[in-house]
Amino acid sequence: MKYSINQLLDIPKLQVILDSLYEVSGIPSAIIDLEGKILTGSGWQDICTKFHRGNPTTEKFCIESDQEITSGLQDQQRHVQITCPLGLTDTATPLVIEGEHLANIFTGQLFLQPPDRQRFRLQAEKYGFEEASYLLAIDRVPVISQDKLDQNLSFIANLTELLAIQGLTQLRSLEVQECLRESEERVQQIIASAQEGIIVYDCGLRFQVWNRYMEEMSGFSAQQVLGRLPQEVFPMLERSGVVERLRRVLAGHGVDSAEVELQRPDLPRSIWHTDTLAPLKNADGEIVGVIATVRDITERKHTEEQLRQALKMESVGRLAGGVAHDFNNMLTVIMGQAQLAQMKITQGHPLWQPLEQIAIAAQRSSQITRQLLAFSRKEIIDPRPVDLNQLISEAQKTLLRLIEESITLHCHPGADLWAVKMDPSQVDQVLVNLAVNARDAMPDGGVLSIHTENLHLSQKSCQYLHDASPGDYVQLVVSDTGMGMSEEVLEHIFEPFYTTKGLGKGTGLGLATVYGIIRQNGGFINVYSEVGHGTSFKIYLPRSSSAAPAEAQRRCTDVRIGSGTVLLVEDNDMVRTVTMSYLEELGYRVIVADTPRDGIEICANRQNKIDLVLTDVIMPGMSGSDMVREIKVNFPEVKVLFMSGYTADLVARSGVVEEGMHFIQKPFDISTLSVKIEDTFLSDD
């Protein structure tokens, strides 16, 4: 039994009853639990405590008597009566409640006939007791006849039956109370641990229950909201119609679930939740309040927004992919013919400047295509471990040319910066686009700051960062002191073609490009801005498991003159013509083929010693990679450089990017082609 006898019986009242019994009968009694704890005692004598149990020899007799009593009670006797070897009589009656033995009611010590004083003088002498004191103690022990003792034991037996009934009644009461308490605790645990919000309103629509889920979701503790009206804590609930819906439920009307926006005090952005309202009724069926169940749908809303953004990106990607090939082929021709024409004249020639403008326009047009591909994450890239500090240092001159003289550029490189895996050209794109955005936001001048540092994001800190995942990152912060942006503008800044600039002053692809590049490289970006107080772009790039090379890779734009025979395979006549002219200007002997089958036949002719195959990736009838596989069966040492104007996904499907082969993206100029050919010749494959 998990309840003690003290919890089941009124011990002070029992003490009073047994005291009265002693006054009437002169028989000492005591209630002692099974652990030996004395609960009540009436008329106790000191013959045992001061003499018999105080002597090691005589104490053994007392212990034997205790064992005999205990053994008798364990045999479920109604009571046990013994006379100890020292001449005193004791009785014990078990106190049993619902079949469990909890305590004993003892009667004694006493004599059933007048004591033999000579015996006790001899006992005093034998065991070393002080005779006068010992005999005085003997005289105080009551002398009771067996009949009177039996009457007393009968009374005790009846008393134990009453106590058993009283204890059982109290036991049932305690069990009911415990069940109620456990039930209440269980309900509280269910409410507290529920994976949805539970709110209870009283008839005045004041908060009565606010569970842990609501605390975590809203940022308000139960202590902050209980007893208050919803509109006092969350004014937006009045505007969104929640309070009116609560009033309707309280009036007995049904209402539909609703999606509600809620502003947290500790977050810069709001959260979304859906609620279901139902009436709270008492035992008579009267409506006495409202029960609301609430579920956080912020993540779902966020996912929906991501889906909408992804659909926009997919649309742009399809658009870019659809036009990229033909557009890049044409830009290759335009750029190439302009460059080749410039190579035939001197810089002072009247046609030099127009040709230069054509080349520049073609280059800028290729950047627009590249921005579209970067945003849709279909640009072909060459990621490698790089040091952002080094790339930013190299880009400073370019950035200074982009911004106005009234704008000051401050760079704060972080110490011992981790490497990130990224295409260096994409870092340039990010810096240039953010610098241009900052320049346009500071028409009257200001400060452009670029800051880097190592950062570890915990699970908790990711809760407050859009698109974040825990881990090690290199943070790149680009800040300006410009005009800043409103919340409405911030919601759209990464959308393609969205711009706040005037007609003809922006493509709306700059920040979309930045977003696409960062996401393509496994990072994320957060923007913090306030009208009149500038803007800060915080970019988080995953830490690379490899270190950046000690020296930056040299980016050479010089034309590299070479030698050898190049097989050019290209199905577009104009691209084939301008590329052949490039190769001849670079010093190579060129053999051309307009189909992959022609390329295979040319290589099969042993008189044609081919040093390099320069081939388009996607062509009618056969892909460039399939053609190369057949060529390499007989010429495994031949070098191969692929080119394409298609998007990354289509090129990758042809097995080029995945196999790590050498590749050049259309459109390209003569210097880029020369460097790529030289790199291909110098490679080990």
Automatic annotation (TrEMBL):
Which residue range or ranges hold the PAS domain? 183-253
Alphabetically sorted, this entry's keywords are: Phosphoprotein
The record's catalysed reaction(s) read: ATP + protein L-histidine = ADP + protein N-phospho-L-histidine
Show the InterPro entries listed in the entry: CheY-like_superfamily, HATPase_C_sf, HATPase_dom, His_kinase_dom, HisK_dim/P_dom, HisK_dim/P_sf, PAC, PAS
Domain named Histidine kinase: residues: 322-545
Q: Where is the Response regulatory domain?
A: 565-681
Q: Enumerate the Pfam families for this protein.
A: HATPase_c, HisKA, PAS_4, PocR, Response_reg
The UniProt record lists the PAC domain at 256-309
Tell me the enzyme class: transferase
E.C. designation(s): 2.7.13.3
**Residue numbers carrying 4-aspartylphosphate:** 616
Stored NCBIfam families = sensory_box
Which PANTHER family does the UniProt entry name for this protein? SENSOR HISTIDINE KINASE (PTHR43065), TWO-COMPONENT SENSOR PPRA (PTHR43065:SF42)
UniProt protein name: histidine kinase
